[in-house]
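Lab notebook, bench 4. We co-purified these components, and the gel suggests they stay together. Before we commit to crystallization screens, I want a quick structural picture of the whole thing.
Request: model the full complex, all chains together.
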Amino acid sequence: MSTIRDVAAQAEVHPSTVSRVFSGNAQISEATRQRVLEAARELNFQPNAIARSLSVRRTKTIGVIVPHVFDGYFADSFFPQLMAGLLEVCYERGYRLLVGGCDGYQDEHIQALDILATRQADGIVVTSSRLDVDTVGELRRHNTPLVLIGHPPAQHADVAWVDADNRTATRRVIEYLAQKGHRRIAYVGGDPDSSVVKERLEGYLDGMAQAGLDVQPEWIDYGYFAEDGGYQAVERTRRDEASAPTAYYAANDLMAIGILRGLRERGIDVPGQVSLVGTNDSPEAAHLSPGLSSLRVPYRAIAAAATHRLIDAIEKGEQPAGHELLESCLIERESV
Amino acid sequence: MSTIRDVAAQAEVHPSTVSRVFSGNAQISEATRQRVLEAARELNFQPNAIARSLSVRRTKTIGVIVPHVFDGYFADSFFPQLMAGLLEVCYERGYRLLVGGCDGYQDEHIQALDILATRQADGIVVTSSRLDVDTVGELRRHNTPLVLIGHPPAQHADVAWVDADNRTATRRVIEYLAQKGHRRIAYVGGDPDSSVVKERLEGYLDGMAQAGLDVQPEWIDYGYFAEDGGYQAVERTRRDEASAPTAYYAANDLMAIGILRGLRERGIDVPGQVSLVGTNDSPEAAHLSPGLSSLRVPYRAIAAAATHRLIDAIEKGEQPAGHELLESCLIERESV
DNA sequence: CTGAAAGCGCTTACAG
DNA sequence: CTGAAAGCGCTTACAG
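Here is the predicted assembly.
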């Protein structure tokens, strides 16, 4: 690999001149620029990005940590959409994405911290907001740019974030079901320790209140985002068939599929006897029978917006601020 | 951010001593080690990875390029499985993954080249093998470690690669269908310019030959990996219902779903009148009705094996060599 | 076991 | 517009 020095020798200029023609912003006479470019071509020179990073203290890289140990993480459509959004704007703005694994939620901020502390990235996007782990707090102590995908915990209300309108969107789904005549509506959340699930629960309660409906405690259940969790939720919510829900809202499609299976086993027809709405509009939703109505969450757009916000802040040299709420939309199919 | 210098001052040692305690492999008296560690803790010091990379000429990072402009890429289960495999072993071996986008197959090697030429990664895994773009050739001119996920093109037979047994696995599926009594079997490939699709076609031809079956040219069709492509393939393969296929093998599940839709519209029952096998065992396969039999390709394991191979070579300071063929397995459901 | 020095390959303020 | 120098923050061969 040739260096700036080799090129300088070949072109008979000072290394700093070579640097100037490659960094773009500098006054260089056309003649020497050509000479340098020619020499660089001959020597197959490309500036070493690591050396440049060290010198300018900027890596043109943003970091993200993925909990690679959770199989479900890769089965859900959240992950690919997240990556698509991140990559799309990184590409557009000339950045690269540095991805690290982590073996649990505790480890997430350890890994993120490591990327930041060792200066491997100029900023980081954080994707998990758990109520039980203060990832955001840990990360903020470094004052490296950070943006959160999801709602921030109460004690960090001023961190920059972008998320879907989880609470409102869920409320609307409940109102929609109520309008269809349902009075006993169940909420099947994912992991109760994740903040999305809590927001959706609030939306559910809002919607029920809005529609003037009572809520029975047994209509609120958690399936931990798994197909089997949805299946079990059916069991738990239908101990007493007389007062059992006539509609289910599930916080992801996988659980909705489990609910569908549970209902079917009990000989309950969907949508004839019970209605069902999922979340995320995953690829399978359209191909089920009945087609699963699902709340489509714009994860790709969310990730893209977060990345823009992060890079804006990096380039201005400040901490990102403000937030953005993107709208989800209900895709109606046959399950209601 | 404090540097090695600050810590040295605080601990009253030479900066090189601080470096030694952090790089691990060096004889350091326990007393000074403690003093340095203590100083580092007080100053909240972490070694700058970029500076280290420049010095040791190693980044502990491997690169991969993702064609982020193709929507279908993020809908298929290939992508998340690929990422899972890469991340899993990167994590295990202390590496990070540097991901870049690319806006087409031509751009893929441009981006990959850029990562390598600018020394942002110690090696790279290449995922697309197109017959029309010589990505591998371009990349090999740099002698940075490279491993290919997929079969190499003929002119680069000696590059390191790992892939599924596409040809054999497809042949087995055809033989299986033949055993079930099918004599007119169709092959619906993806993009004819991708090498997987060609390998599967060979497997199809092998299988038909093995079973002593004739092949009609119109039974070979291409759906470009899209649902609609599968749908159209039904149209093109059934101009003459009398000699139309009684079984279809599709190179991904999305096309199989399209085929299912096409057959249904023509009032053809699956599996009653026509059998169907897809590929990739995507999450929807299990939830269709009839459940879709599908060839499960171990992409996660393939990516993991490729990453190990790459990192092994990087750490030995040589070019990776050899290859690995992982077995696919047919998941039987109701569509046959 | 520890120090002093040179080097990794760039960038950029300072002169001219 | 171009050169000479110092610096980004580490590592490591060489002495002792």
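Residues 166-296 of chain B form a domain with the Rossmann fold fold (CATH 3.40.50.2300). Worth comparing against the SEC data before the next meeting. The two ends of chain B are 63 Å apart (CA to CA).
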